[in-house]
Amino acid sequence: MRFATLALLAATRAAGTKSSLGPAALAPQQQRDAAIDALRHHVNEEVEQRHLRDLLEDEARCNACTAEACGLYLDFARQKVTVHTIDLLINVARACNVEEKRDAMFRGEVMNPTENRSVRHVSLRATRGDPYAIEEAQDTLDRVLDFARAVRSRHVRGSSGEALVDVVAIGIGGSSLGPACVHEALASEYASEADGRRLRFIANVDPVETEMALRDLDPASTLVIVISKTFTTKETMLNAALVKTWLGEQYESHMCAVTAAAEKARAFGCERIFGFGDYVGGRYSVWSPVGCLPLALQYGVRPVRELLRGARAMDLHFREAPLSENLPVLLALVGFLNAFIYERDCRAVLPYARALSLFPRYVQQLEMESNGKGVDVEGNALTEPAGEVVFGEAGTPGQHSFYQLLHQGLRVVPCEFLGVCQGDGENHDELFRNFCAQADALALGDDGGGDNHRRCPGDRPSLSLMLDRVDAFHVGALLALYEHRTAAQGWLYGVNSFDQFGVELGKRLAGLIESGDAATASTRALLARYRAKRVARMEALAAGGGGASE
Ligand SMILES: O=P(O)(O)OC[C@H]1O[C@](O)(CO)[C@@H](O)[C@@H]1O
C-alpha cells in the first residue's frame, strides 16, 4: 500500500483528534489527502485482512452494497468494503469536490482547462427545456433525424438514381467506438427496424478493413459518412480517400460528413455536413451526429430518441441522487478504491450479453484515454498512478480463456460483470447462472481439497451490474453511467479527464517517418526490411511468380 501522504496523516494525528483538523479547517489538497489517508488507514487496519467469504456473510452489509437507477441494478457486495468503508469513500468524494465539479460541468464551465473548453456532452441528450440544453445541438439533432427519415423512406438517391440503403461509417477512436458499440447492442433487438439495411464501420487504416467493409456492398446504393471531429485524422482521411475512389466520380451525392471542422469537410468534397461543437470530446460524442446519424439511418428515429432518453435519465440521476445512492459516483469510488488504495492496475469489464460485446472496447477508450494521465489538473506530477488497464470480452468464452489468471494468478484483477434480466430459454438461463457463479467463485475461492494446483484463493473483488434488458433506453443509460463514472473517477484522481495529449507523439513520429526522418536506428532497420520485402515481392510478380516464398 502506498503512503505518499503519510506525513500529513502523522501531522493530523499529532495535532490531536480528527475533529480538530476536520475538513473545514484544511485547504482543498489537504482535505483530499486527509480523507484518503483516513480511508487507507481503515482499509489497512479493518478490511484488507478480512476475506470476502466472511464479508459476504453479513446480510445487512450486502444490502447496503446495492443501488439502482434507470433500470440498472448495482451490487458491489463482493468488493473489499464494509459499511464504514463506503462512508469513508464518500468522504473522499466530498473532499475531492465531486458534486461541485459535476454541477460545474452541467453549467457548462471550463472543465478541460488545458484546451480551455467546457465539456457539454450532456447537452446532446437534454430536452429543450433542460437548463443545460444547447439550442444549436437540438437543431442539429432534428436535421439528423429528418435526413435519416428521408433516407429510410428512400427519398435520398445516389448518382445513378438508386435509393441509398446501406451505410459505411468511416472514423476512428471516439468517432467509431461508441457508434459501433451501440450498433452491435441494438442489432438483435431492433432487427426489424434495420429491415435488411447494412451499417459497416471502417476505423483501422489497414486496407484489409476497408476491403472487408465494402465487400458485397454496391456503391450505387451506399451512403458514406466520414466522421471526424477534426477532419485531419490521418487514418480517417486515407480511408475516406479509398472509399471516395470506390464510389467513383459522382461521389458527392453518396457522401456526408460529421465534423466540427466544416470547412475541411467541404474541401474534401462533402457538401452534406452535420456539425457539433468543440465542447464535445471524441470519446463522449456518440450522442452527437457522430452516433445519432449512422444509428438513425440503420434503426430509425425511435431507437435513437430512446437512447438519448436513457442517457438523459442517467444524467438526472447523476445530478440529483445522493452520493451514497449515485450509480456513477459509486462505480467511481469502487474503481478508485481498487486502483488507488488496493493498487490494482487492471480491471476486467465482462458483459454476459452478446449484444454488449463491443462495450469493453468502448470503455477501454473512454477510461484509458480520459484518466491515463501522469499529471494532475494543474500539471504537477502525480505521486500515484491514475487510470487502469481495462480489458474484457462478452460472455462465457472468456471463462475458457483468460479467467484462469483471474481465479489463480497472483495478480488480482477486479472484475465488473454485466448481466441482463431479459432473455428466454435454457441457454440464457445458463448464461445468467455463469454471470452469478463467476462472481461468487472469485470471491469465495476453494481450497482445492488440499491440492495447491487446484486451489483458488478467492477474495477477488468484483461488482455485478444488471440491466433489465438491452434496449436503446438501457444502453443509453449504461453508456452515460460509464461516462459519468469516468469523469467522477478522474476528479478523484485529480486529473483532467478531457484532454488526450499523449496520443499526439505517435502521430508526430509517424509523420517524421513519412518525411524520411525516422527517430531511431531500430526504426530505420525495420523500414529497410519492409521496403526490401516490397521490392522482392514486386520483382517476383514481374518475373511471373507470386512472391509467396520470399
Ligand atoms: O474525430 P477525430 O478528430 O478524427 O479524432 C478521432 C479520435 O482521435 C483521438 O483524438 C485520439 O487520437 C480521439 O480522442 C478521437 O476520438
From TrEMBL:
A single cellular component GO annotation: cytosol
NCBIfam families tied to this protein: PRK00179.1
GO biological process: gluconeogenesis; glucose 6-phosphate metabolic process; glycolytic process
Leading EC class: isomerase
Pathway: Carbohydrate degradation; glycolysis; D-glyceraldehyde 3-phosphate and glycerone phosphate from D-glucose: step 2/4
CDD domains, per the entry: SIS_PGI_1, SIS_PGI_2
Keywords attached to this entry: Gluconeogenesis, Glycolysis, Isomerase
Pfam family, one: PGI
Protein name as catalogued: Glucose-6-phosphate isomerase
GO molecular function: carbohydrate derivative binding; glucose-6-phosphate isomerase activity; monosaccharide binding
Family membership noted in the UniProt record: Belongs to the GPI family.
EC assignment: 5.3.1.9
Source species of the chain: Pelagomonas calceolata
Catalyzed chemical reaction(s): alpha-D-glucose 6-phosphate = beta-D-fructose 6-phosphate
InterPro entries: G6P_Isomerase, G6P_Isomerase_C, Phosphoglucose_isomerase_CS, SIS_dom_sf, SIS_PGI_1, SIS_PGI_2
Xref: Gene3D superfamilies: 1.10.1390.10, Glucose-6-phosphate isomerase like protein, domain 1
